[in-house]
Amino acid sequence: MTPPEQTSLDQQFAFLKEIDQLKSVVRKSPLLNQSRRENSAEHSWHLAMYALVLQDSAPAGVDINRVIKMLLLHDIVEIDAGDHPIHAHVDMAAIAAAEQAAAERIFALLPTPQGESLKALWQEFEAAQSADARFAKALDRLQPMVHNLETNGGTWNEFNVGFERINERYLPIIQSGAEGLGQYLLARLKRFFNKSDA
Predict the structure, then answer these.
(1) Domain for residue 197, yes or no?
(2) Which end of the chain is flanked by fewer CB atoms within 10 Å, N or C?
(3) Shortest CA distance to 150 belongs to which of 30, 17, 5, 27?
(4) How far is CA 73 from CA 98, 135, 172, in A?
(5) Is the pTM of this model over 0.90?
């Protein structure tokens, strides 16, 4: 009979092997040097670094360690469900169902208590009700926005997206989770689009 701890290790390594596939999920956002598009694993790592570096911009009471965990986990479901750019025309209900099914499958690879705990963090991020989740969501919107600003419009050019749509889709979520970051990005956005009141 396999010792229980060995069974747990087998499950944990199966999960770690499975999530390696996130490196193959290609996003629309380019790297800042524009040599290629980033993958979802790189995006998750970069967001965790955003949380670490920008933690002073988080509202009082935010647990940055929980935020980092959420950001490392938030796109794991893309292994099954794929990445769907914010400006693409997609069936959001179908995507949500596919992501939920992916979460059930992937987190179930882990020992049950650990898998349920990590799935709960993923669900908290998705719901965006807690201060931790709102800050994590803000960073998830902020990072691609910064990439587009730094690459002279990046995917905004590709999807023919202007100031009003960006302001509507990015800023409310950023400001909800980190008001100061939202104000900073709004000023940069106005300068980028040559808005007179920037």
Answers:
(1) no
(2) N
(3) 30
(4) 16, 15, 23
(5) yes
